[in-house]
Amino acid sequence: MNNDIVNAIARAIRKEYDNTYKIYIESVEQGFKEPCFSIVKVSAKHEHKFFRRRLKEYTFAIYYFPSDKRSTFECAQAEEELFDLLEEIETSDMILRSYDFDAVITDGVLCVTAKYDALILKDVKTEEIMEVAESEIAPKEGDSEDG
Questions:
Q1: CB-facing half-sphere around the CA of 33: CA atoms within 13 A
Q2: What is the pTM of this model?
Q3: Other C-beta atoms within 10 Å of 63: how many?
Q4: I want to staple 117 with a disulfide (CB 3.0 to 4.6 A). Which of 3, 24, 57, 131 is the partner?
Q5: pLDDT tens, 74-90?
Q6: Can you tell me the distance from the alpha carbon of 23 to that of 19, in angstroms, rounded to the nearest whole number?
Q7: How high is the mean pLDDT of the chain?
Q8: Phi, psi values for residue 123, rounded to 5°
Q9: One Pfam family this chain carries (predicted)?
């Protein structure tokens, strides 16, 4: 599910920004070309619900490295665009809506966090059930049916 969400986020960004901006899906310490994006999973939470239902919550950080780190305008523009295009993403088997966004600009880099949750049904292994069970019950010797 993690990779599926990361790929969905990357597709949404590519849809808006084409291939003009590189998108990194793993941590890159140095050697990247700006402007670019980086997608990092921040946290995951799995909660058991009723019977087979599981609530999975994921938080992702999407970093935008502008071409000019002194330009807060470029970061602010990217922030609004990211809020719009990451509100609803399509994974391989479902559409996820982000229910919580946060954005902060630190040292000229925009960091947008988005939370997604999915309620899924977990497959449960079932064992083969007997087809027919027959049983006969007879009274003990000495017991009468009359009482």
A1: 3
A2: 0.77
A3: 17
A4: 57
A5: 999 999 999 999 999 99
A6: 9
A7: 86
A8: -70, 135
A9: Phage_tail_terminator_8
The pLDDT, as a whole number, for residue 63 is: 95
Nearest Cα to Cα of residue 5 among 54, 57, 49: 57
Tokens of 113: 């966090």
Q: Cβ–Cβ contacts within 10 Å for residue 50, how many?
A: 6
**Nearest by Cα to 10 from 115, 94, 86:** 86
Which pLDDT value is given to residue 146? 57
- Closest alpha carbon to 40 in 11, 2, 88, 75: 2
Write the CA distances from 143 to 82, 136, 137, 140, 146, integer angstroms. Answer: 82, 17, 13, 6, 9
What digits encode the pLDDT tens for the residues 40-84? 999 989 888 888 888 899 999 999 999 988 888 999 999 999 999
For 19, the token pair is 């291939």
The domain limits of the chain are: 2-121
